[in-house]
TrEMBL record:
Organism of this sequence: Planktothrix serta PCC 8927
Superkingdom of origin organism: Bacteria
Record-given protein name: Putative restriction endonuclease domain-containing protein
CDD domains cross-referenced by the UniProt entry: DUF820-like (cd06260)
Domain Putative restriction endonuclease: 11-195
Amino acid sequence: MTYTPPKLLSFEEFIAQYGDNTRYELIDGELRDMEPTGPHEAVAGNIAGRIYVEIFRANLNWLIPKTCLIKPLNASATALRPDVIVLDQEELNQEPLWQKEPVICNGSTIKLVAEVVSTNWQDDYARKVEEYAFLNIPEYWIVDFRGLGGMQFIGNPKKPTFTICQLVNGVYQQKQYRLGDPIFSPLLPNLQLRLDNLMPT
């Protein structure tokens, strides 16, 4: 039996075939199924809603698009699709693709990304930590409400974990929160949030 590797896609092929399908993202030419479930989408929606309330309360010129891809400029075959992304509206006119596609290329446009962990947790805890830090995104949230991540990331025994990665000198400093802990976001310091508030019913 011979092994046939999956066909690699370019960014342009991915946009043409899967750009409107929120199930998929592209990493180094490989199509990744994000495997969204109802609880996963509920948690992502809850996060977006709580951030929006804080954006309005603080009168920030930020927005949360319904769907959005990140195309790192140095990666020709990668299109990341965060569960929640917060954009600086003033920076959007510097985005080369934004007027035609909901695609962000410049890290300076992005204030925050949040990923809700699913079975492909390795991407959220490893690859995306590097990608988002390289883009200089100030804050990255990893919301592991089912405790799926590897023990090296969330400990043993594995428990629901909310990780805030804050960019310091180009590297993310990570702080973990468990159920019951008040979560502190350096980017949104007045946000009142606990992991308990995000857990699906």
